[in-house]
Specification:
Layout: E1 18-19, E2 23-25, E3 28-30, E4 33-34, H1 46-57, E5 61-65, E6 71-72, E7 89-93, E8 97-105, E9 118-125, E10 132-136, E11 149-154, E12 165-170, H2 189-199, E13 203-207, E14 214-215, E15 231-235, E16 238-247, E17 259-266, E18 273-277, E19 290-295, E20 308-313, H3 321-324
Antiparallel strand pairs: 1-4, 2-3, 5-6, 5-7, 8-9, 8-11, 9-10, 11-12, 13-14, 13-15, 16-17, 16-19, 17-18, 19-20
Length: 328
């Protein structure tokens, strides 16, 4: 006999539970049972759910509109607010949606859709008025939040089942682009003279004849008054930390992570230079700390600032910077 498609198809009788030998643990008896529908439980979908699953097979998400104009996703045969039949007006929604709430699964089980930690989430598809529950492959729990925008990840082969969407994934909101620029810099006369001094283990500055300020590194004109600078001044390799930053990202020039980069006012100079601070834990660096340059051995030096490994504390008392500025 042919079974009409709008009626449930015949279902094989329920298989009797398989009873295994009882296991005894202490005073407790445990018997294993299996409940199974041989061949699987089969039912017809009806016109509403059938339309939803057919659209899933074809890579689309649809909802159904109620008489009040609400779009139900997944679709229902009756309006949950009034109990009235839905209109039969199907609306394509998504493909993107918004997470409204979620729960993180730290240890997936065999029946779960993913074999790595994921979130079960309620997702409001664009154009829908109700939420769809599905898995979100966010990578880690910190990526999950209400309001997260997600899109479906479709399976290559689809059969008309909710698992045709293997999961949802966050929309792309940022990218990492490798950036590298190779260029050559030719120093001018003043910078060349400064680097020659660094090669010889000294810092060279220039004194303005009008302002009487010593600029470091050496320069041939005063940035304040524009006067030409001819006088070289040998500046000490000791100085005072005026301000600093603690860095937590690796740097090939740094002695360790975290490391400190600081503005240092060398003795005899009126402008600061930026350099690394080493030989002291990062959390012990402070404004006013007295430091000294740590140089490479003479045979390893070139015309580059890498001749100075970093500055380290001298052990001298700190300088009161506020007093030098005329008080706070």
């Amino acid at each position: 006999m042919t079974v009409p498609s709008e009626r449930p198809t015949a279902v094989p009788p329920l298989a009797p539970p398989a009873v295994h030998a009882a296991e005894q643990s202490g005073d407790t008896l445990v018997a294993g049972h299996t409940l199974e529908f041989p061949g699987g439980y089969t039912r017809t979908t009806g016109p509403v759910i059938g339309r939803f699953l057919t659209e899933l097979r074809d890579g689309r998400l649809v909802g159904v509109r109620t008489a009040a104009g609400r779009v139900l996703v997944p679709p229902l045969e009756y309006d949950p607010d009034t109990g009235e039949p839905v209109t039969g007006d199907y609306v394509e929604v998504g493909p993107a949606g918004t997470v409204t709430t979620w729960s993180w699964v730290h240890a997936p089980r065999p029946g779960h859709p993913l074999d790595r930690p994921f979130a079960w989430a309620l997702i409001r598809m664009d154009g829908a008025d109700t939420d769809l529950v599905h898995a979100v492959d966010a990578g880690n729990v910190k990526a999950m939040r209400p309001g997260l925008r997600v899109r479906p990840r479709w399976r290559p082969e689809r059969t008309g089942h909710i698992t045709d969407i293997s999961c949802f994934v966050p929309e792309v909101t940022r990218i990492v682009a490798p950036i590298r620029t190779d260029y050559r810099l030719r120093p001018g006369r003043s910078l060349t003279r400064f680097l020659e001094g660094v090669r010889d283990g000294v810092f060279l500055g220039g004194r303005c004849p009008e302002c009487d300020k010593v600029y470091l590194p050496y320069r041939t004109s005063c940035p304040a008054c524009g006067s030409g600078i001819d006088e070289e001044v040998r500046v000490a390799d000791t100085g005072t930390v005026t301000t600093f930053a603690i860095n937590n990202l690796p740097d090939p020039r740094a002695p360790q992570v975290p490391f400190v980069s600081a503005y240092i006012l060398l003795d005899g100079a009126d402008t600061e230079m930026i350099a690394l601070v080493g030989g002291v834990p990062a959390d012990q660096v402070r404004q006013g700390m007295r430091v000294r340059a740590v140089w490479l051995p003479p045979e390893e030096r070139t015309m580059a600032m890498t001749n100075v490994r970093w500055f380290e504390p001298t052990g001298e008392p700190d300088v009161d910077l506020d007093a030098g500025r005329g008080g706070a």
